[in-house]
Amino acid sequence: MENVIERIKAKSGFIIDMDGVIYHGNKLLPGITEFLRWLESSDKKFLFLTNSSERSPRELHEKLLRLGIDVGEEHFYTSALATAGFLASQKPNGSAFIIGDAGLIHALYSFGYTINNVNPDYVIVGDTHNYNFESIQTAVNLVLRGARLIGANPDVSGPVENGIAPSTKALIAPIEIATGKKAYFVGKPNPLMMRIALKRLMVSREEAIVIGDRMDTDVRCGLESEIDTLLVLSGITSREEVDNFPYRPQYILNGIIDLVQ
Asked: 193: Cβ–Cβ under 8 A, 6 or more apart, which residues?
């Protein structure tokens, strides 16, 4: 075990998921404060890479501040920003009908996109609490008229304080079924996210490690990008569920606390 911890700590770039790794809902998980203190005192490079598209980096910074941790905005990158950047590279200054929260809307605005519910280039779905039949009906008809369907992330669900909540893939499913069109998902495990993370950290894939709680996104994304992976069991995946997948992470720990105890 000590040898495993030493190998993990020898990495110079840490790509860290948030939900289920750092916190559940508004509850900080054990060992996080000490881990962040160690990252900063050891001059490690780190980036919180989250599939959640609801919040902007500023809002994520403020959320951690409320939980007692001060981390600069430059340490956050979201699937909303990745989605906006991808669409801007595909069709600069395009328009979109968005089913999502402020993080996704602000990200698209920042890349020069406009909101359009008449003839948009894209229908984009992200994590949201503002989900209703009317918006689904609008999205279905826009996709049938030619708008391309994009999901900010392919998560089916995510951990919250009182269990799990449906995530983007579950929310976008009615639109896919009603239109017969399949969405393109930008967030993890799309390797786009990992390539962006390595560029932002300015480290090679050999120097980096991905820390996450999901086999289907975090671990798969790391493996497909040839980056070492650490699965923590503090979120969505249990030790028994690991065997349901045809691949394995390099390392498995109970939680971040195992790195600092």
From this structure: 49, 77, 79, 82, 186, 187, 221
Q: Would you call 17 a catalytic residue per the annotation?
A: yes
Domains in the chain, ordered, with CATH? 2-51+188-260 (3.40.50.1000), 81-185 (3.40.50.1000)
Model confidence, pTM: 0.90
pLDDT digits (tens, 9 = 90+) for 33-91: 999 999 999 999 999 999 989 999 999 999 999 999 999 999 999 999 999 999 999 99
Active-site hit among 17, 127, 218, 228: 17
Catalytic annotation present for 218:
no
Give per-residue burial for 168-203: e unless 16+ CB within 10 Å, then b.
bbebbeebbeebebebebbbbbbbbbbebbbebbeb
- Each residue of 91-113: pLDDT tens digit? 999 999 999 999 999 999 999 99
